[in-house]
Design goal:
about 30% helix
């Protein structure tokens, strides 16, 4: 279990993390979401004692990180896949970590096999692709067979097979009763992996809830309808007290989950429906809606240059 209470980090006038309080519990995968610059990486670094909080507290199974004996057996983490001595082989990199934490050397071969790096175990890390580096970082996190796992963007650089593998790995670790805390910008992947979400924006807590509740509370549910008897259906729904909005093209939309009632009204009045589909927002749409006011960097469309021969007034060529 990871417990944060009022965790705060300032860099001069900049508040990177602002009074975070939440608990990452065992037995489920907890996703950690936030826009760029929200403070996710800083929070993870404070959990591991790499940055000292300005205020507040963070504990791992009731202890500060520096109080842990052989910390790799308590918490394993992947924060930066490139944090490896390029001149060392994958095997020797893990062996050094094992020896410094009282972990048996046989465990090195076990985790290399688990992440699919046995064939390149004796090759120097500087020759690894980014995806191979990610796998080596995950092997290091697993090395001490810890109760708590923490991953920052673990699927970066992985191919589809690797993404599928890390997703199932995280789920299996949680199923064993371990605490799994993972940040990612891939919303589609997080939706398939996490059961609980912690969302922050500009260093502050925005949500601490289940995946299902998060989507329900921060998204729009509606029913999409298409029919060749459009005007007739509009009249029937209006009589039934159902508000309809134009959705572009020939489609209509009705807010909320009224699909069954719409279908019954259409059938009762002999109206043919070509589509009657309940729609729910994705995790990405719910996330964008919640964090819209917390995005630090906004992109804008680039201005387009005028077409030669059609120069606007006041525009001068180079």
């Amino acid at each position: 279990m990871i417990e944060l209470e009022g965790l705060t980090k300032r860099y001069g006038e900049k508040v990177a993390v602002d009074g975070l309080t939440f608990t990452v519990r065992p037995g489920i995968v907890t996703g950690f979401l936030g826009p760029n610059g929200a403070g996710k990486s800083t929070t993870m670094r404070m959990i591991l004692g790499l940055d000292r909080p300005t205020a507040g507290d963070v504990r791992i199974d009731g202890l500060h990180y520096e109080q842990l004996q052989d910390p790799l057996t308590a918490i394993g983490a992947l924060l930066d896949a490139k944090a490896v001595h390029g001149g060392r082989s994958a095997y020797n990199h893990l062996l050094c970590l094992a020896q410094s934490n009282g972990i048996p050397a046989r465990r090195v071969a076990e985790v290399l096999d688990a992440v699919g790096l046995t064939a390149v175990a004796r090759k120097k890390a500087k020759g690894f692709s980014y995806g191979m580096g990610q796998r080596l970082g995950i092997a290091a996190a697993l090395l001490g067979d810890p109760r708590i796992l923490m991953f920052d963007e673990p699927v970066n650089g992985l191919d589809p097979e690797g993404i599928h593998w890390i997703r199932n790995l995280m789920k299996s670790l949680a199923a064993e009763g371990r605490t799994v805390f993972v940040s990612s910008h891939l919303m589609s992947e997080m939706a398939l992996t996490a059961e609980h979400l912690v969302v922050i924006g500009q260093g502050r807590l925005l949500a601490d809830t289940s995946m299902a509740d998060f989507i329900r509370q921060n998204s729009r549910a509606y029913v999409r309808i298409r029919t060749p008897q459009r005007e007739r259906l509009l009249d029937v729904l209006h009589e039934g007290g159902i508000t309809v909005v134009e959705a572009g093209g020939e489609a209509l939309e009705v807010e909320g989950g009224k699909a069954e009632r719409i279908g019954e009204l259409a059938a009762r009045n002999g109206i043919v429906l070509h589509e009657l589909s309940p729609r729910h927002a994705s995790l990405e749409e719910a996330f964008m809606r919640l964090t819209a006011e917390s995005v630090e960097y906004h992109a804008h469309a680039a201005p387009t240059a005028p077409v030669p021969g059609d120069w606007g007034a006041g525009w001068k060529g180079a």
